[in-house]
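Field guide to reading this record: the first block holds the primary sequence, the second block holds the structure written as discrete tokens, and the final block holds curator observations. Each block starts with its own label. This record concerns Phage terminase large subunit family protein, catalogued under organism Ruegeria alba.

BLOCK 1 — SEQUENCE
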Amino acid sequence: MLRPPPDLTISAWADQNRRLSSEASAEPGQWRTSRAEYQRGIMDAISDPSVETVVVMSSAQTGKTETQLCCVGYHIDQDPAPIMVVMPTERDAETWSKDRFSPMARDTPCLQDKIANPKSRDGNNKILHKRFPGGHLTIVGANAPSGLASRPIRLLLCDEVDRYPFSAGAEGDPVNLAKKRTVTFWNRKIVLVSTPTNKGASRIEAAFEESDQRRFWVPCPACGAEQVLTWEQVKWDKAEDGSHRPETARYHCVDCDAPWKDETRWAAISKGRWIAEAPFAGTAGFHLNEIYSPWVRLEAMAKAFLSARAGGDETMKTFVNTSLGETWMESGEAPDWQRLQGLKEDWRAGTVPAGGLFLTAGADVQKDRIEVDVWAWGKGLQSWLVDHIVIEGGPGDPACWQKLSDLLSRTWQHASGTQMTIARLAIDTGYETAAVYAWARQVGFAQVAPVKGLEGFNRASPVTGPTFVDATIAGKRLRRGARLWSVATSTFKAETYRFLRLEPRVESSPADGERFPPGFIHLPGWIDAEWLKQLTAEQLVTVKTKRGFAKLEWQKLRERNEALDCRVYARAAAWILGADRWSEARWEELAAQFAVNDTRDNASVTTQQPTRRAHVRRVARSSYMG
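BLOCK 2 — STRUCTURE
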């Protein structure tokens, strides 16, 4: 223990000792860093005593996880220390332990006698906690605050940090919580790894901008010019009919335009080197895209790009994040409210069009009133505004809360004649929080979800919770008296504006396909211009922080924005119910409850009276609503 660690880098240790397992790798056998030469610089930076933090902003399929495994294996074998690996969730932590770490520990000879047999009863080799001579390995989920704050750590590995929740329970940012575990070690190492998400809201992008920003420069086999590989230099041919031929994809040198086939590209990458673009101040940053990967052919990337471009912003964002390793700039332009006037459809207020299969509501608490919008949701998350309700009086008036309670038992008539109730109402807690908690406890949390808006984007989980919070009711403080959901309002605002920009599909006959694309927002003819102005009252802009970094921020174009807030809360309620994760079979079963055989073109309901069968009151209750 007193002997200093050997003069051996992580990449050299991996080349000597690491063996890849058949169930965890497509190329089992002896590890070769030269197979993906760019990994050498990343691993050796972790070995470098002058480097405290390593940041890797990368696409998928570049070997990020294997690099981290080599780091863990090296420290277990050569430089024992307390190690913590943080995954986005506890389930991810268990999967990483079982499917990635355990096979490495089993098949790498130098680790076999240092990790206890998992079948032993001494507790030294549990799924999420493993002991070895001189240290231990703890694997936790970023959503578990107790795991992040339990013990001092010298080596911290944070994987997919952009998928972490905004807060670990009520403890705050999970990355900062984990970093606090390392402060007692003078020789600590912090490794942050992730594919990026949205520009201005990405943890890994912010960390990379604070690093020395290293990029991998590759020499051209033809002219020798060094260059960073970019997607703009990937080209392919088109057929005579104008169709794309992704099988002809190749990389073109930025200097001499020489085409590189996949084999030529891989050979050139093996001769590349990392070059920093900013001064080094203790943090080494690395950026990679999928073009560098020796496991990906350009034909596959070209096909993925063409498919993403055809799928719209949502699929294109996935390509930019996971293939190019770059952040996605949300299009936050507010739609023109006058254009929305021309897209209004005809159905009566308080009635549910045939495509609507369940109802949610969003409630915005103001000083002198509570505004509520009721939305119907259908397959593909199409939505219809069913009702707009203003309850006068404000949170200080008991009668106001009673009217809101009455709204929970009110019914709205579906096109089939069935009476529907609100499946979940999400209410903002930003104003008069105590009064909101008191009301929610009175009516019960089964149908009501108190929500708190958080800044920033979170595509992985726009809604987190519920967390138990203290509530003051009738002057008495109740510990864990309320359940609170946290909502990434930026995500749902950007989604709403993206959906509002969708156009109905032009079709010559119903057989040509669905008229409305997934996510289409149907607006009724009875809403006024003021409501439309409130729905489009904010704009997403890029601002500079005090430290000079870019940040996305929603700013008001108009003073009143209640319609947009209510829409966000109603959308959060649909997420809480699980609508984003329902299978096609669930949607079909839900539709069958209303005798809706074809919801493709049900944009509105007729103004005629329902059939005679509708005189028998039926209330729709779905097992999916909890």
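BLOCK 3 — OBSERVATIONS
The two ends are 56 Å apart (CA to CA).
Residues 508-513, 597-626 have pLDDT under 50 and may be disordered.
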